[in-house]
Amino acid sequence: MRGGDTTPEELDTDMERPALEAALAEIWKTPEGMWGALATVDHKIIGRRYIITAFVFLAFGGVLAILMRAQLAQPESRVLGPDRYNQIFTMHGSSMMFLFAVPVMEAMAVYLVPLMVGTRNIAFPRLNAFSYWIFLAGGVLLWTSFVLDMGPDVGWFAYVPLSGPQYGVGKRADVWAQMITFTELSALAVSVEIVVTILKQRAPGMSLDRIPLFVWSMLVTSFVVIVAMPAVMLASTSLILDRLVGTHLFNPAEGGDVLLWQHLFWFFGHPEVYIIFLPAVGMVSSITAAFARRPVFGYLAMVLALIATGILAFGLWVHHMFVTGLPRLGESFFTASSMAIAIPAGIQIFCWLATLWDGKPIFRTPLLFVIGFIVTFVIGGLTGVMVASVPFDTQVHDTYFVVAHFHYVLIGGAVFPLLGAIYYWFPKITGRMMSERLGRWAFWLIFVGFNMTFFPMHILGLQGMPRRIYTYQPDMPWHGLNLFVSMSSLILAAGFLLFFVDAIRSARRGLLSGDNPWDAPSLEWATSSPPPSFNFAYIPVVNGANPLWEQRDVVAVAGGLRTHRRELVITTVAAAEPDAREASPRNSIWPFWAALATTVMLISSIFTPWAVVWGSIPIVIALIGWFWPKGTPEDES
Amino acid sequence: MKLRITGRRLRALVPALTLAGCTGWQSAIDVHGASAISLKQLIVLIMATCSVVWALVILALIFALWRRRPVRESPLALDPGAQRRMTAAVAGAVVATVIVIAALTVFSFLTTRQLSVAGGDDLTIKVRGLQWWWGVEYFDSNPELRFETANEIHIPVGRKVRLQLEGIDVIHSFWVPSLAGKQDLIPGRPNELTIRAERPGTYRGQCAEFCGLQHAHMAFFVIAEEQTAFDAWMRLQRDSAVASSDAEVTAGQQVFLSKPCAACHAIRGTTAIGRTGPDLTHVGGRKYIAAGLFENTRGSLAAWIADPQTLKPGNNMPMVPLAAEELRSVSAYLASLK
Amino acid sequence: MKERIVADLSRLPLHGMASASATWWGTLAFMLIEATGFALALAVYLYLMSIAVTWPMDAPAPDLLPGTVVTLILAASVVPNYLVSRWAEREDLRKVQIGMIVMSIVGIVPLIIRAFEFSALKVSWDTNAYGSIVWILLGLHTTHIITDVADTLVLAALMFTRHGDNRRRFGDLQDNAMYWNFVVVTWLPIYGCIYWIPRL
After folding, report:
1. Of A166, A350, A379, which has the smallest distance from its Cβ to B90's Cβ?
2. Does residue A168 belong to any structural domain of this protein?
3. Across chain C, which distance is largest between two alpha carbons, in Å?
């Protein structure tokens, strides 16, 4: 049976609304029970579990931070010995960067982007399911190793030769390197899905200049992931090879180079922080528009700033290597580029300020977090300008000054917007509001606790305190500030605890929210809270950048999709004109099997290179199972 | 660990906080070296500029949030005149940002240019970074005049000193903030750092690149002295260890040479020529031992030798079991090596 | 909220081809990822060369024969590949079935010769950094051939089943052909790097 619409199937326009919704629910549903949970390809279910899992890793990483602060509160303290401390700070950084920060941003995109662009599911839904299991496996690998006292202890960026075969004893560094493979595989997969969803599955009429700013930020982020992650994959694979089979890429005695590791890692590592930051920027735009009651000022400037940041991000990496003895002229170029990236960041700040100035701010918790973001991120960005200067950096590199800087930009610049985003989109995801009262308490505890914890670290760095030290001596002048910082960290922890308590309670007992509690403009608010499995009964049609503000009473939609198979519409890249219908895959257990096979192969290859050969066989079988057509209507056309 | 939060403790914190950063022998603010002084000027300038920028942004934020504004009937009812004014304001802010960034970049370059680099005819000292101590070799064109020491570097006040940095095992970083910025010691990539002390004093430095278990206890000292004192120190260091007439000291030397000590440590003038550990020819004259862990006294020497693993867990010096007699005499011997 | 139907999608084709298909874009994205990986590996080669005293390190330049044979076969394979793609576009099942068998053979033969290429490198991966990077470069590309050949074999088998005569399958064939071109094109700079840079 060839293509072409010869079979008379029911279209959505043939049915009454209740019957339509019933038919769509039937065809798009995820069954209850274990099989449904393992086989679902619904981006909302996968996105939700991704978000929750990432927050669990945040909590774990936070507990590690409290342990570190307990140890550092007193000089020559015996709370933690050097081995345990070194594992803990490595786990804290690795868990936060690889298991929380990047995955949570990807997860928010997985949930929100298909809804915001008006489609029924993310592109490559089975790949999406696969990527979650791979991410989970990587996290379980890392944390299980830590619990078994074989956690990595070489810092989250694992410099050689410390992590190399000679000085990195045991399997600790291999665990770290393979965790990278898991998490990068997962991030790359999600990025491909996001790019294709945004470019090809937008609602008819949603031309490029009508895409929500959050969606733009995820598009740019996804490209940054695609071009940056191969560098760290190459680096971590080379490290495993050096350690396992005796290659010499990083061994200066045989023509390798110690700095090669740093170049490869930071070529990824600098864009990595923008992979974390750019989605947060998108969240700030969404929240600001809704709570300033007007579209964000300067749409074109904002988009160009996003793109400029994404491109510039690749030109900064050497600023992590300013004290390695590279030629001065080269280093100076990187000072200029590192300072220059402040300009697109500044453009965005000014546009948000203009939006708030011209709007009518509604002070709810999401906006509080945006305000907190502006106050703290600007500090972090300015200390970034400071460390961008080579001479300045020669004093503060590898000290607590830098620790302060990156926590200001990561917590201020990414976590604050994320927390605001959770308060903002929680109603859409669960159908219930979080508590405004607890939200304010959480915000103030976190804001004050954060600044009290991290601001003094700038001073500690200038006072000569290096980073990654498990203790310090009593005759150094650091005790007072360290004690202050440790006590303040408890305030910060209390704030996060309150946030978790609020989220868990509200999921069950929060006030029902309705479709659009914030009267926000973008398409995710056009459907119910939580959305049905099929997202929209009819594919929306837009003719502006703020659909729900433009179409207050009647929403334009497109009809003509079939109701007894999973179907959505593919549109053109620039103008989003309808191009073709596309079948969307049904639930499938194969991504789970493929992920399991991949996990076994990757973990075994920490111990023997032959695992790559033998372990590939189950993977091939699982992939054939995945792609072999099952005779469902979606497989044929 | 018990924390007793008393009112007294908290009150004591206040002056600690206010005086924070003002004094110290390992501080980027309490500076005594030519390089560090230039760097501090840059630090102060950039921090002042950035503080002003931050304050302006916060003022703008406060103003934006709390200004009185007319009610708008729909979120899309934007006033074109206001849009134009805001465009001008944002454009102006961007231009100001570009100017400030450019100025800071230029100041940064100028500071780099200002930092002088030592040349071939300046005092040259080779520093080796190992887990977790610093090997120091004073270079001279006449091989007879070269000598090695560890963890303590003496330099003459007011003269440029050229440090050649070599990583032996993993990456370390040489940082003595009161005198200069840091530079890494990378295996396979020799680096150089120039320091010049403007005033005599003892300046503490610490390894600033995570290098494993005892990264936290890898300190060193740069002692700047007037030229005559420095020359005297050099002469002393060049001499081999002198045989002593004291019975306990001689017994201690016997212990040192017969036990595993000599396998790792060198003492010029004896048969001990080990290079795995620090050179001990004049260890008695050093101010600290175990890379800044303890002040150098006979007692701390004995404690260190008796059990290095408890005091600096994981470091590369094994515990060598010694009888009490032996411990007493060997510590006397080492303390005598001034 | 009331809805008003303003567009009719029922006349659209049931499955887009080429740039109207999601898998085409997905294939393109994966090509971008892998191209970046290759580019970085080549950059590592050039970096190690730039800091080396002699290059190749303690080894002669690799033997030209097996690598050049592989290059010629891969270059020639572009022709049947293009034909398969054209036939798939025209949805000609019979021709495509033959073509896919040809492409399967044309994919396996270079793999066999590739086995000889590794020993023709005249250096082991654990001899020195030069050995390590040439083995990594060759290994990366070999992995790509293997995965694409596996894909080709599965698709070829599929074309002989009841699922074969289907628009989606023809789209898959075109994507597969596009990817094979990528495998061939990425080989050329790697071939130039491994075999000819040492001879400059």
Report:
1. A350
2. yes
3. 77
